[in-house]
Amino acid sequence: MFKTTRRISACASCAAAVLFFFAATQAAAAEYVSVKGDNVNVRTGAGTNYEISMELFDGYPLKVVSTEGEWLKVVDFENDQGWIHKSLVTDGNTVIVNGNKNVNMRAEASTNSAIVATVDRGVVLTKLETQGKWVKLKHSSGLIGWIYGPLLWP
Questions:
Q1: DSSP H or E segment with residue 90
Q2: Could you give the CA distance from residue 75 to residue 32 in angstroms, rounded to a whole number?
Q3: Tens of pLDDT along 27-80?
Q4: Can you tell me the distance from the alpha carbon of 135 to that of 128, in angstroms, rounded to the nearest whole number?
Q5: What are the structural domains, with CATH classification, of the chain?
Q6: What does the angle CA 26 – CA 30 – CA 36 come to, to the nearest 5 degrees?
Q7: Which helix (H) or strand (E) element contains residue 5?
Q8: pLDDT tens digits, one per residue of 73-100
Q9: C-alpha 140 chain-centroid distance
Q10: Who's near 96: CB < 8 A, 6+ residues apart?
């Protein structure tokens, strides 16, 4: 009887470990996309017959929550959600400034580096590379600099 109890608890531990690994993998594998084009409609449901809930611009980053056919259920950095057609997005290579107010863009990946710009919350930038927790970014104006990653979404 002792062996059976021991086996069950070992199997329960294995199952818990597998479930934890699966949940962690799913969280790490979140899919992000960027809007392709300006004046792109996000709708309240998966189809053109649904109301427009948001109108987004080129490069705007979105997290994919689920899919239904050719439609993606998405959420943005402020937790607004809706549906967008797959043809209106591309692989996510943009981020949005998510600091409380303005954040400093620096010449190098360090708080000791010169500030090259102050960037407002909600500004979209293109990712070029990462270095630790710093991200090298390009603004649509051509300006390039580094911002501390926790101030960006995603």
A1: strand 89-91
A2: 10
A3: 446 899 999 999 999 999 999 999 999 999 999 999 999 999 999 999 999 999
A4: 7
A5: 31-91 (2.30.30.40), 95-153 (2.30.30.40)
A6: 155
A7: helix 2-28
A8: 999 999 999 999 999 999 999 999 998 8
A9: 19
A10: 60, 61, 76, 77, 122, 123, 124, 125, 152, 153
